[in-house]
């Protein structure tokens, strides 16, 4: 299915993420989402939220130090995604990682970056 290949198109996601990277920032990893991608850098998380019903999209960037809570929803056998919720003081974001992407690996990497930011 073309949809699944698009969600796991890591090279394309890395190229797209690089346009949002600033000087002295390092891209660590990208993950495919239901609609687009999420990128982890050494300083922040960047993801693109696209609307299902319009062509509008929004690039969201959250420094790790501003993340208050993350949650991984597990054990959804019939689901096509593994949702990860990221909470900040001002907002909650749900990232729908495609089933088959390493959601636990993403959760661990994000946790590691958050812990490093608080040191």
Structure description:
It is a single chain. The chain is α+β, with helices and mostly antiparallel strands. The chain has one domain: Roll (PH-domain like). It contains 3 helices and 7 strands; from the N terminus they run H-H-E-E-E-E-E-E-E-H. The radius of gyration is 14 Å and the shape is globular. Residues 1-7 have low confidence and may be disordered.
Strand content: 35-45%
CATH superfamily: Pleckstrin-homology domain (PH domain)/Phosphotyrosine-binding domain (PTB)
CATH class: Mainly Beta
Tell me the number of helical segments per DSSP (H or I, 4 or more residues long).
3
User: What is the general shape?
Assistant: globular
CATH fold annotation: PH-domain like
Structural class: alpha+beta
Number of strands: 7
Number of domains: 1
Q: Look at the structure and give the mean pLDDT.
A: 84
Would you identify the regions where 5 or more consecutive residues have pLDDT less than 50? Answer: 1-7
Cα-to-Cα separation, first versus last residue: 44 Å
InterPro entries: PHb, PHb_sf
Organism: Natribacillus halophilus
Protein name: PH domain-containing protein
Pfam families: bPH_1
